[in-house]
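Side project, low priority. Logging it here so it doesn't get lost.
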Amino acid sequence: MASLSAPAAAENNVQHFGDWPWQHWAHVHSRETALVTASGELNWRQLAAQVSELAVGFRQQGVQPGSGVVLKSKNSPQALLAYLALLQCGARLLPLNPQLPDGQTAPVLARLNLDFVLCLETPLPSVPLKVLALRAASGCAHHQWESESLATLTLTSGSSGLPKAAAHSFAAHLACARGVVALMSFTASDCWLLSLPLYHVSGQGIIWRWLLTGATLKVTPELPLAQALAGCSFASLVPTQLWRLLQQEPVPAGLENVLLGGATIAAELTQRAEAAGIRCWCGYGMTEAASTIAAKRTNGRDGVGQLLGEAQLQLAEGEVWLRSPALACGYWQEGELLPLVDEHGWLHTRDAGIWRDGELHLCGRLDNQFFSGGEGIQPEQIERLLLRHPAVSQAWVVPVSDAEFGQRPVALLERDNNTRLDAIAEWAACQLAKFQQPVQWFDLPADLSAGGIKLPRRTLIQWVNREFR
């Protein structure tokens, strides 16, 4: 099992901090624009001052180094400043999706030794925590910067049970950011739109790339995407967002690079974007790796590119194993860090993959495979085929229970309404083995596809099985 390592990164892409990154940039280029919002701009000096004032306010309310704090909020300038201020207090910070019902979050939060909640969205979680207010105060609350200290807890998708809280250090976040920054040539003169939520690791990835380079971040969630992208040279989008953006005229001026994720990417999408002057990048990432760990400029091939930063990869009987300084320290539970990696430092991802033509190709989740009449079905293989149809923008294949075959495949599509589902089914039939052909085709329900980065496969499975009953 030979391991593969990432290409060496140029030294000038590496930034090491002796202070909080926002304080560092406040000293290095204080008057450069740090943050753009709908109400105006903040330079780095102003941003660092506001973060420090909020940190004093949190300290006065009892937040201490090591305190567990929930930040329940959608994206907003206030949420971003609170995120930075709580980190500056030394808190162990858990950004939480405000759309999740209390019944889902309460069992998870109860295991994470949390002390406080800052809730910028209602309602409050039912777990008994002291409620923080977002208020500035004068004084000093400058906890010492230590890159190896525990910074954040980020919940995994929970596809195999209760979500786990991946615990990342500042160093891990910055290690992940260095890889992406070096590949995509993101510099201090660029602006990245915070288009993905802070409670998701992809949203935090944007924050740490911004902090690493001292660039500009734009936070305007109240604006439609096309307007929000004005003045941004970089953005992280899911394929559906890019499809809709390309249907508008004109494409936002100045948008040069888009990092795509969250779903399988259709070749037609990236071809249309490149024709419009937008460089498209795709990759492979996970919560445990602080976001993106392999990536490339899209080129029409299915691979996800080369490893980034100091990452290493090993293929063990077809399973992707990873080792990287960007990996989480462990899973936080009941005041302890549970092991994330084996005794040699390898994370067993449960992703199936191969190394071909100089890049990693993912074959699907080992956990997603199901069997129909004794035949193994890897749904991602069928989804990639369906995305080749020009009318299909999203494709999902999930199993439905069947008395005779055990399970059968069902397809859910986001499509051009001018093309019928039965026409797509007919197109696919001659390209799939009989056992791979979906027995039923559905339009992807709008209420399931709205608002998320990565649509949980288990949610689709539950929906399909309810429909069949």
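Brief comment: The longest strand covers residues 392-402.
Revisit when time allows.
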